[in-house]
């Protein structure tokens, strides 16, 4: 009798070994980009890439030019660094580059959510319906109420409410935006104080997950950290369960619309819980860190703070907080703040560093703006890193490392949208939200949340750094490629409610 189990096992090992060997022996074909496999078999350049993606890509571009393929953990990534050549990748009329496949694998690994065939279209449809126009206006009002509860609740209405308070700026911004966003999207119970306490505990756990996130994506966690990630995933699935949603009021129409779609598709409640975790991360993982950079840049540049406060006074009046009342702000005024718009766009240029990825579905040719053509191999991943190739390009943005609050303003105060490289207009002159099929569907809500928060802070509070000479902290090198960057360390600041004049 033939022992088929061992035979089939040996055959499987042989096939896998053969496929791995093919990848290890890969050679550059005619017209393909420069190939740099690194010195370590299979891993390639993975460790250098994960240690500091920004510095690694700077080195590779200096070595190979604007297009190159590198091996990272058994996978081959072709990086395109010329922004004038982004168009064919982002538009991809022939559908030979796929974003959804990679995204589905990532959300399954990180959040435990198994995407359905219509999810990507559904999320964009829900965002168009509820995160623009009247839907966005309603969410802005809810966010304003939540920010009032979170910030004034933490301040209290005690006699010393107008005394100076000290905190870490990053933690303060992340905490406030996360809790307000969570309550606005996932609703309240009848006990607002208990809601605040729960939101605080969720934020504490969210930050634990957030700190592990980059190494989790790269599968670099230690045994105890893997256990911790599993615990945190289960905790969020339970906390954000659709069962608990039934106990709350004011769940946003955006979340309700998407959950209704999943129910109609027959998605199990347990998978809906995981979807909620994914949406919490997508909506709240970047707004707090971005607001930190915005307020820090304003505190380091008094001329920018002055210009923004003058605009706020002109558009909204000299708002002052009355005892026992929530913040008063006309949310429609967010459409009449060109200085704030420029401040936020400049903050995102300096602080947002996402990676845009597309899986090559079949062999095809990429035509560069220069006229050169490169063959892309099926199974590889095409990658864009706009922070290095666009945001930090001195030809597109002179003095790219400097914060210029009016960089995106024309002399007449209108929005500046004309930027050039090599004499040609650059259509993608900043890309903090991604672009094409992978553009962030919640970008309008995220931007409104951050603008509301920054306006409230500069209108209603006196703000100052504990040490005015403290430098802008460097970016945590492990956060490159994961949306908004985070600082290597926090910055201490003081704040107090502004006194009526």
From TrEMBL:
InterPro entries for the chain: Cyt_P450, Cyt_P450_CYP7A1-type, Cyt_P450_E_grp-IV, Cyt_P450_sf, Cytochrome_CYP8B1
Cofactor(s) needed by this chain: heme
GO cellular component, one term: endoplasmic reticulum membrane
Subcellular location: Endoplasmic reticulum membrane
GO molecular function: heme binding; iron ion binding; sterol 12-alpha-hydroxylase activity
Residue ranges crossing the lipid bilayer per the database entry: 6-25
Highest rank taxon of the organism: Eukaryota
Pfam families: p450
Topology relative to the membrane: Single-pass membrane protein
Keyword tags: Endoplasmic reticulum, Heme, Iron, Lipid biosynthesis, Lipid metabolism, Membrane, Metal-binding, Transmembrane, Transmembrane helix
Annotated heme binding sites: 440
Binding residues for substrate: 109, 286
An example Gene Ontology biological process: lipid metabolic process
Sequence similarity: Belongs to the cytochrome P450 family.
Record-given protein name: Cytochrome P450 family 8 subfamily B member 1
Organism encoding this protein: Rhinolophus ferrumequinum (Greater horseshoe bat)
